[in-house]
Amino acid sequence: MNEGYPENIRFYPYFLLKDYNSLLALLFILTYLVHFDPNLLGHPDNYIPANPLITPKHIVPEWYFLPFYAILRSFDSKNLGVVAMFCAIFILFVLPFFYNGRNSIPNLFRYLFKLSFWFFVLDFIFLGWLGGNAVEEPYNWLGMCCTQFYFSYFLVIVPALETLERFLFNRWVNRFYKSIKANVYRKSGFVNIKVKSRYRKYKKK
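Given the sequence above, the corresponding structure tokens read:
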């Protein structure tokens, strides 16, 4: 911790204890699912006996793969769908290299970004729901729309909002700084002194 900033919090032990509590909560949920209710997250189709003479009407992956499965089947071309599915995963890994946060503004003032983030969460949940439905209309068309929004969020919306919010924030800061400066000058009498001196120079001319 930098001694010049006493409001900062040390990494140890506060953040370590916070992460320890989160780890205990996850282990508790995992232990409950493994020992008491292992079939809670299973799909009913997985318990149908396999028949080599009949092809299943609808093959559904596990629930945590459903959003990416919806992206996979949103394209008519299988190769393009596989590429889009892997790009949807790898884009999360390369995202920190594009936005390093050096010139970013505080998240407290990023109202548009917060709104767009919750739209992205809803889009991801909706993709999961679409992945669990049959491959037919209108699910295919809705999956394509949600897939376009998924990639547009990372490639278009986030950079555009960052630029727009930085412009609005700098404009607000400059206006706020000028108002504070004017109030300080007004209370200290600097404004009156400057006005009088300019009036005297103009009068002499």
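The domain at 61-179 is CATH 1.10.287.980 (Helix Hairpins). Try to locate this feature in the token string yourself.
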